[in-house]
Amino acid sequence: MGSYSGWIMHLLFLVLVYLIAVLVVAAGGVYISRQRRSRLSTSSKKVMPAPPGTLTARGGEDEKAASVVTEQPPVDNVASVVSSDVEEREPPKSLSAGLSKTRGVIGAALSRMKLRGGLSEEFWSELEETLILGDIGLEISRDLVSKTRDAFRQTGLNSSVEAIDLLRRQMLADLEGKERSLTLFGEAPNLVLLVGVNGVGKTTTIGKLANYLTSRGSSVILAAGDTFRAAASEQLEQWANAANVEIVKGSSGGDPASVIFDAASRAKAIGADVVIADTAGRLQTSSNLMGELAKIHRVAQKAPGTLSEVLLVVDATTGQNGLSQAKSFSQAAQTTGVVLTKLDGSAKGGIAFAIERELGIPIKFVGTGEKMGDLVPFDPATFVDEICG
Amino acid sequence: MFDGLGNRLDSVLTRIKGKSRLSPADVDEALVEIRAALLEADVALSVTNNFVERIRSVAVGAAASRSLTPGQQIVKAVDAELVRVLGGESLKITYASKPPTIFLLAGLQGAGKTTTAAKLALHFRRNGRSPLLVAADLQRPAAVEQLRTLGERASVPVFSQPTDPVSVAKAGIDEARRVGRDIVIIDTAGRLAIDESLMAEISSISHAVQPSYTFLVIDAMIGQDAVNTAKAFNETLSLDGVIMTKLDGDARGGAALSVKEVVGKPIAFGSTGEKLEDFDTFYPERMASRILGMGDVLTLIEQAERTLDEEVTKKGASRMMEGRFDLDDFLEQLRQVKKMGPLKGIMGMLPGVPKELKDVDIDDKEIDRIEAIISSMTIDERRNPKLIDGSRRQRIASGSGVQTHQVTGLLKQFTEMQKVMKQMGIGPASATRRHKTKSNARKGRRNKR
Above 0.85 for ipTM, yes or no? Predict the structure, then answer.
């Protein structure tokens, strides 16, 4: 058995011992802590006796881990300066004035900076904070700003406008050279599977995608693969009616994989070009549901036609958890693209940038509203401009 | 994926361990890490910056305390401050003297309002109340059908009519009075905070029905936009509390802190799963350690209690304590742990696990392989691995589709583990006492529930 497996087994064992120890020893502690819950000062950890022995066990693991050199995150002193004009950066009180579509928090902050000129430490840290506000994430924001800063130094530029332009180009470079259109060139019917966590807008996106494809001359069938959520197939059916496409439904609580298979067979029989399949929303931490998704994916691969796209639907309001979603869903179902929804709100959807940059999954479509036509192909320049004002 | 604050601070503070006091520069460095931890947990930037400033004096105090573990002191201080901010006054629901008591739910699209409405209804029904659900989401296709289905599951009637949201809400309350329901829960359409016409609409619903409680339903996965959303909804509706959904995921949930700061009202409930029962009072302590990435032991225990078979766990524990834990027991426990979800997720919840371990990608297929190898052994072999000679090894390998050296490796690993177990000093002496503690505690908790 390779060292990796041995290591996993070691780990498993630790977890196991830990779980058992926690259950046996700490159940008493939890009870006490619950009784004392009203006393806020009492931290639950304080009253929970550490399971004896786990320290020793972890110590053993520590030795292993010790050989791994801990890489210190680059401590940017600039970032440590807690800016004093936090209030200023907040969106203005009046909603109508401050949170318009075209000019979000970030855009406003950045264009304000553009006018200022001069490149103080404060400028760079504000630039970083601006990106953080767009949900791009701390690490990537730091990295983008530090690269921009290096490039800025090398080019001998001197205005903040040029610096922001460099940042924009930096971001665009990260989004370059990706296939962003749907690749529906397999043997018909081409199957498009939509996956994602609960409430991101999968069903709505399918309705809009059906309209998008039919208006471009494809014949489309919908598969109501969300057999779990109450009234999910009714919801999809209303979209099917609106987009004037056929829908294949299963029974509530039925097997989602077979609904999708049936839809593919139906599409094959009537010669439809594309099957768009819905799946139930699932949190990536639920192993059962992710297992189910992997099964749906396997069945979809074997269904008549070609599994051409697996689109991960990501809500633009999502924070850093989006990366975890993308990782897990890709593992279970090999996602080929991202649909970024709810971009008509005040959130900028920077997490999709992080997903594409870190995991290489291209953003393909953007959802901008609740109406049929509110789905457009992703355009990097517009997206980056929105973020950079 | 992200470092917990504990690990972050440890890495800063180990370098300065020798010092008896931390310099102001050390404190600054610690504050940078605190800020990073909060931002990675999606606490809003403005809230983060304010919080870090507040923690400065605490950190200086902790640093000056000549403690041997200033890092832990600071973590504790941050944790305590988080709990203080997240907790504060808890929401005590006062039922209207003239029923019904009216609850209005509002939030962005996809936050989980409809499911939450049903969960809240079930919660009240179980507390002896008679709720009525009102379906005022006429926007999203099939939202009314969804609420009807969920209402059926919760055994709570659902009122709706195909008019407009304001009329439905008003009529729902008349209906509740007519049939004598003492709680009304109004589900509304999801709306963006910047959508003026829809914000005006929910404002008129609120004016029309004069809710006793207005809750913002917010997704635990939301990022920086949480402040904008919370602010806008609070300005339009003056919220009484917040319900946080999808807490069963692995989001750090920093939005809880942002929203709490902005709204200044309690986070009343947390939603922790897809079943209608997965709905609970919000625990600030858990949220604090979750935001800090310090391991969520309480959630882990709850999850363990939900998924693990008590008898099997007990058996495993006693076998361990008797020092008789064999491969068969290992297999049995392994199958249990698998039920709890990916190993990485569990690891994430364990406190004190080094960063390096949490960062490594763990392929759960490896666990399947281990399971397959052990399953291919006979019971006798599992009890006494010494029996396994060359030809048995061959058989096990082909039975589980691996190479023989992998079987050897597994056996070697297991022997090592048994040694570790002995070193850990889990012995029969303390077993009886522990068992007592556990069963008493369990009894106590049941009684309490």
Answer: no
